[in-house]
Design brief:
By secondary structure, the chain is of the alpha/beta class. It contains 9 helices and 9 strands. The structure holds guanosine-5'-monophosphate.
């Protein structure tokens, strides 16, 4: 067991010893321009925090090599996407780079009431919509790259995207970055371990927010009763 695991287990457990849900889950939103390290940060957080799950979005974007249905995304066509949207099954949705993306609503409320946290890798449009819908449950982090040069290098080294796509993503990055003031926290990813430590600290602090620790009312009552 590593030091970080021990640290993360010091935050309130999802369930009390008597089986009651100890706290309300939270929605942790990570946004950044592509290539700023958001995917790596998400993966590391998910492997470290057992009661953190990823929100799997639906998208009309074609599957990239190595991506798995139901793991990276639920890949749908535009008709299916519109159907979900019309039935209000999406908590938020947006068009990003010519494709549509959305967050299925069902799993989110289920996780929150069960005291599990959910991680969202969504763009600024989605973060804005979630803020309107779920302000009290939300903590949002914007990840910035250390420089434009570094961002371009990271996009190129992925080798998954063509020159045209890289150029398109670079121009989109400028637009995306302009939304940084809309977030609760901002982390500059100079170095992945350092950025991870900062995101970890945010998650731990957000879990400790008084309003999220729903078990405290009874806990303090027992303390006051001398138990
Ligand atoms: P990619 O196609 O590279 O997986 O994602 C492109 C962009 O779409 C990323 O910035 C990602 O955060 C965003 N994105 C992925 N899923 C969703 C979603 O459900 N809603 C919104 N608003 N953006 C999303």
């Amino acid at each position: 067991m590593n030091r970080h695991r021990i640290l993360s287990e010091q935050t309130p457990a999802t369930v009390n010893l008597d089986g009651a849900v100890a706290r309300r889950g939270l929605m942790l939103v990570l946004s950044s321009p592509s290539g700023a390290g958001k995917t790596t940060l998400s993966r590391r957080l998910l492997s470290e925090f057992s009661d953190l799950t990823m929100s799997i979005s639906v998208t009309t974007r074609p599957k990239r090599p190595g991506e798995k249905e139901g793991v990276d995304y639920f890949f749908v066509d535009k008709i299916e996407f519109d159907l979900m949207r019309n039935k209000r099954q999406l908590l938020e949705h947006a068009k990003v780079f010519d494709h549509y993306y959305g967050t299925p609503a069902g799993p989110v409320e289920e996780a929150l009431t069960a005291g599990r946290d959910i991680l969202f890798d969504i763009d600024w449009q989605g973060a804005q919509q979630l803020k309107q819908e779920k302000r009290d449950d939300l903590a949002s982090i914007f990840i910035l790259p250390p420089s434009t040069k570094e961002l371009e290098q990271r996009l190129r080294s992925r080798a998954q995207d063509s020159d045209k796509v890289v150029a398109q993503r670079m121009s989109k990055a400028v637009d995306e970055i302009s939304h940084w003031p809309e977030y609760d926290y901002v982390v500059v990813n100079h170095e992945i371990e350092e950025a991870l430590a900062q995101v970890r600290a945010i998650l731990i602090a957000e879990r400790l927010k008084r309003t999220r620790q729903t078990y405290l009312v009874n806990f303090v009552k027992r303390l006051q009763d001398g138990q």
